[in-house]
Write the structure tokens for this entry.
Amino acid sequence: MARNITPRKENYSQWYLDVIKAAELADYAPVRGCMVIRPTGYAVWENLQAKFDAAFKATGHVNAYFPLLIPYSFLNKEAEHVEGFSPECATVTHAGGEELEEPFAVRPTSETIIGHMYSKWIQSWRDLPVLINQWCNVMRWEKRPRLFLRTSEFLWQEGHTAHETEQEAREETLRMLGVYKKIMEEEAALPVIAGEKTKGERFPGAVDTYTCEAMMSDARALQAGTSHFLGQNFARAFEIQYQNREGELAYCWTTSWGVSTRLIGALIMTHSDDDGLILPPRIAPVKAVILPISKDENTAENIILPKAKELAQKLDDELGGLCVKVDTDFHARPGDRFFAHLQKGVPLRLELGEKDLASGTVRLVRRDTGEKLDVNNDNVIPTVKKLLADIQNNLYERAKTFREANTHDAKTYDELKEIIDKQGGFVRAYFGGTPEDEVRIREETGATPRCVLPGNDKGKCIITGQDNARLTIFAKAY
């Protein structure tokens, strides 16, 4: 157990912050609620960004950029939207030494400014669909910030699309939800449940909101990404009209969807342990580190180091480049060098000492299990590739098994309250209540409806007793 990391069972919140500090992922900024993403943390974000960006482009989307400042009158055009975001908005009232005629909101999200631009760009059904994504920062003034999970400023992507028909827009909403789920599970090793948000949990201004919900290692839920069917709400508010195939004016159907740097928090809380960070190989900036080791620094530098660099180059060529590091901190003790990379979540450690050099072997150490293997030089590259794939799969399966072990069923409201109080985790129950019922559940249990599960499974609502209620997951959440 690491001395610089608080055990999870002792204080989960402090453990989370200690892991971030030990792995050098982020630090607090001088502005309350904001963070500085350090190079290691940003490299993780870049890798996540690259995976999502490629998937977006494969589905026909293109990137653009829209302004940071939004006229406050734009927010007021969509009543439900402004009501949802007003408490979190940061507002610019002065610039150039003068008071502005109209204040600007620092974007909490970009539906309004993009809706305004789409109203100028879209004239005919031939202009549709419009499939645009942007990578940017947003600001939502958080009262209780936590690094990566809830910060006043954070990085994300937001997709915004406009369509000719309701069916096309609904298909887009679910398509992007599927893209999110695929990347989260296959690349980030995060098992997620994709479902629909209840009315009380919908995005402000949306007709329907869909979500990917993940379970953290303390059995709480985390909303990992959302996709929104906006209907014609924003199209009507911003006059996004086009001439349809019959020559008549019609309103577009729009969607929006986003994931953020919150995913780094999800990675930490899903995979890491009391020794520090654990990263899935497909997301890790450094997939493997090679440590030349010798009691004689001259031997380490002049005999073992060249062999280590040669091996690193071969591995980089096989693994896609610039993801294998050679540790040259010869002044430090081997144990300290091992632990530094362990705490940063490097999936695989390769130790190359004098005895290894003499025997023609390399010692491989897995971050996820701590397993050690001595491998002949001829087998190092295929073994590294196999182990990285095994680590990726193990992290996913381990998280999925944990989620399944901490998912329960409740047939009554009393059962739900008891499970939330004594066991925690995800609780499946039939629910068809109102947003007021959701508030009651939150106030009495601390849990919220995370998502309504897809499918036709229906039963009696645990609150109202009415039939045809849908199976819903409840949990305490971040």
